[in-house]
Amino acid sequence: MIYVHRDLSKIPQEKLDALRAISTALQEIQGKSERKAFIEKNKDAWSSVRNELTEMSFDKCWYTESREAVSRYQTDHFRPHGRAKQAEKQYVAGYCWLAFDIDNFRIVGVLANTQNKEYSAETVGKGDWFPLLEPQKRATLTNRSLASETPILLDPTDRDDPSRIIFNDNGEAHPSDDLGEDDRANVDLAILRMGIRQEQLNRKRRAKWRDCARKISKYNRFFKKPKGQRTQEEAATMDELAAELITMASCRSEFSATVRCCLQSHRLDRFAIRDELNPLVDAD
Predict the structure, then answer these.
(1) CB–CB of 167/205 below 8 Å?
(2) How confident is the model at residue 272, as a pLDDT?
């Protein structure tokens, strides 16, 4: 996972207006069954901005950074609009008022968004999961403020959350070593519930790490030689390898967070440029 910069200016105004109109109409409905029926009737609206939101993540799943390993993309509601799952067999009312709020949309591959055991011995995928650190502070239909909530799931639109996950040379996701014991447990739960821990993803990330490591090994062979002893061809090769590593670590590349962890493990942090933090980065 890396930070996803949302630029709503890339979405046609008529699409934004249509979503706001549906959302406004939803707010005027009082009955629970009527709200549910209205949401179901208008659910196609969630897909209306899927292409534009997908471009903002450079065609990658917002949770896993995969382009293929989690199948087709869906528009996930980060805060579930139906029911929210705090723990096993523990459900509470969801965030129905956010059903058409574009700020609540995330683009996610189906195997990360839905509960499944396709590539895992245990059930993974977000589904209705939305546990809070302090469940008693959960927003409700009558008290809609989200300010007091601390979600356990990680949000790719939060600049700090992606750094809470690291990857190893086997392609496996783990909580950052910098976190305390409680935070590590919560991040580990988020990794599971958000479908980030799946064997097919691990395999693809492992291949990415090994490709990165091979380039690093070749780069370091020349780097260890004093500058004055490098041939012109070796210097040119170093430049090419550096450019390739920087590109692999770019937000435009698949599994860039894994590449960055590989670079850091080889003390090449300087190539791990986090270009997604630049709001001017172009998705074209």
Answers:
(1) yes
(2) 96
Q: Where are the alpha helices (DSSP H) in the chain?
A: 13-27, 32-41, 50-56, 110-113, 181-193, 199-223, 232-249, 256-265
Domain count within the chain: 2
Q: Alpha-carbon distance 247 to 255, whole Å?
A: 11
**Model pTM greater than 0.90?**
yes
- Tokens of residue 156, six digits: 């790719």
What phi and psi values does residue 9 have, to the nearest 5 degrees? -70, -15
Q: Is residue 3 part of a domain?
A: no
| Cβ–Cβ < 8 Å for 191, 165 | yes
Q: Provide the domain limits for residue 132.
A: 8-199
Question: Do residues 192 and 205 both lie within one domain?
Answer: no
Strands (E), 63-179: 73-77, 83-87, 90-93, 105-109, 165-167, 173-175
Single-letter amino acid code for the residue at 108: V
- Confirm if 161 and 194 have CB atoms less than 8 A apart: no
Residue 71, by phi and psi: left (phi above 0), alpha (psi -120 to 50) or beta? left
Amino acid identity for residue 92 in this structure: V
Look at residues 252, 183, 3, 202 and name the one whose alpha carbon lies nearest to residue 106: 3
**DSSP strands (E only) in 31-154:** 73-77, 83-87, 90-93, 105-109
Considering 199, 232, 251, which residue would you say is the last residue of a domain?
199
Q: Residue 159: helix, strand or coil by DSSP?
A: coil
CB 98 within 8 A of CB 77: yes
> Which among 266, 222, 225 is positioned nearest to 240, based on CA atoms?
222
Provide block-wise average pLDDT over 10 residues at a time, the chain (284 residues).
Answer: 94 96 95 96 95 95 86 92 95 97 96 92 94 97 96 97 97 97 97 95 97 98 94 96 98 97 97 87 54
Tokens of 117: 């055991």
